[in-house]
Task: structure prediction
Amino acid sequence: MRTPLYERHVALGGRMVDFAGWELPVQYPGGIVAEHMAVRQGVGLFDVSHMGELLVAGPEALPFLGRLLTNNLRRLSAGRAVYAPMCHENGGTVDDLIVYPYEGAYLLVVNAANTDKDFAHISALAAGFRVTVRNVSSAWGQLALQGPGAAALLAALPGGGAIAALPFFGCGLFPFLGITVFSSATGYTGGPGFEFYLPVGDAAGVWDILAEAGATPCGLGARDTLRLEGALPLYGHELADDISPLEAGLSRFVKFENDFLGRAALEKQAENGPPRRLVGLVMEGRAVPRAGYAVLFENRVCGTVTSGGVAPALGRNIALALVEAEGDGPYAVDIRGRAEATRLVPLPFYKG
Amino acid sequence: MADVKAGLYYSSEHEWLRADDDAVYLGITDFAQSSLGDIVFVDGEPVGSQLSAGDVAGVIESVKAASDLYAPVSGVVLAINGRLAETPELLNEEPYACWIVKLTLSNPAELDGLMDAKAYAAFCEGL
Result:
C-alpha cells in the first residue's frame, strides 16, 4: 500500500521498504544519523500515515473504552489524549495505542501491523455495548512534526500558533493552513512534537508547507532510533501477545480503576511482581546489540534484547531487554559469541 | 550512481579485493556502503583464521542492521584494519581507501572467478 506521501518520498530519494504492507522510506539520502540529530536539535517531519485509525462512537463509548484499555481515561473529558495498552484476558498485550477525544467520539491510533487484529478484538469486545467501531485508516493521513524547534516552526505558520501552544498530549481540531486539522502534542521520539491527522487528500499539501518551512524529512530508521533512545515500546518487541504491560515497565499506564479485560491477571502480576522486567542497557564497547540477542548474567542466559542499536544523541549503543525479575546485573549481551559488557541505566536513555 | 574503482577485483556481494604479492586486501564497495547507510562498527574474523571462499570474514554494522562480510577467496586472516575500530565511518567516506581484512591468497586461481571494474559496474547497473 502507498501513503498519500509516496511520490514525495520517491522524489526526495527515500529508500523505500515494506513496513507492515506499506511502502515507506527507511531513510532519505542524508542518512539515519543526520535525520535523528535533526529531530534532537531542530525539527524533523515524518509520514506516519501507515498508522491505523479506529473510531469508537456511541452513548456507551467511554465505558466501553474503560473495558478495553488499562489506563484511566478521565483526561479524555478534559480534551487530552491518553496513551494506553490494550490487553488479553491473560494480561498479554493486544496492542498499545493513543486514544483521542474526537468530535464527540474517540479516535484510537494503533500500530499499522496490528490494525486488523485490533479492529477484530475491539469489535468482538464491543458486542455488549451501545457503540460502533469503524476502521477509518484508509481515509486518514498522519504526519508527525518532532523536535525542539517544532513549536516555533508551527507558530510561524497560519493557524499554527494555537497548535504550538497545546500542552503535552493536548489535542483538538484547529484551522491550520486554510483547512481544519486534528492536531495533538504527541509523538514517538522521546522529545517534544506534534502530530496531525488529516484527510488523505490534504496530507501532501501540509507536508510540503512543513518541509518548505525547514523541517527535515525523516524515515522509519530514525523513527526507530529515536523511539529507542526515548525507551518507547514498539509492539512486537517490548510488547506482544505474551508480554504484559507490567513486564514492559508500563505500570504507570495500568490503573486498576475500570474493569478492563486482563485486569485480574495484571492485578495478580502487580501483587506477586511480574516474572520478567524490562531494563535499559548501555554497551561499554562498540559492538551493537540487536533484537533477539541473549542477555547474560554470570555467563548464564537470563533474558533477551527486545530492541537494540545505536543511540546517536548519546554516542553509545543501547538495548532494551526483558530479563528475569530477580537480580540487577551486571548484564552482558551475547554478540556473535562474545559476552559484551553493559551498564544498567534508568530509562529513558534520552530525556527530551 | 555508485563509484567503481579500476584495478580491483569485485564480488557479487559488493566487496572489492586488491591483490598484492601473496596477500589480498578485502573491503566493501561504494554501492555496499551506500546501501548499508551509516556504518558504526566493523570487525573481522580473528587473525590466523583459515577461511574458504564464501566463509564469513567479518561483520559490518550499520545503524540499520548487521551484515556479514564474506571472503571471496580462500586464505588465512593476516590482519584486521585497526583504523576501523575507532573510525568505522571511514568506510562510508572512502570505501576504496579502507581495507577491512587482509588475507593470504591460498588459491590464486580463485581470483579468476571475480569481476573486474567494468564487469562490476555493469553488474550494479543491472540491479
About this structure: The first strand of chain A starts at residue 15 and ends at 19.
